[in-house]
Amino acid sequence: MKKYNFNAGPSILPREVIENTAKQILDFNGSGLSLMEISHRAKDFQPVVDESVALIKELLNVPEGYSVIFLGGGASLQFMQVPCNFLIKKAAYLNTGVWAKKAQKEAQFYGEVVEVASSADANYTFIPKGFIVPADADYLHITTNNTIYGTEIRKDLDVSVPLIADMSSDIFSRPIDVSKYDCIYAGAQKNLAMAGVTVIIVKDDKLGRAPRKIPTMLDYRTHVEKGSMFNTPPVVPIYSALENLRWIKRNGGVEAMDKRAHQRAELLYAEIDRNRLFEGTVKEEDRSLMNVCFVMSKEYAELEKDFLAFATEKGMVGIKGHRSVGGFRASCYNAMTLEGVEALVTCMKEFENRI
Ligand SMILES: *Cc1c(COP(=O)(O)O)cnc(C)c1O
Question: Which residue segments constitute the domains of the chain, with CATH numbers given?
Answer without folding.
Answer: 15-251 (3.40.640.10), 252-353 (3.90.1150.10)
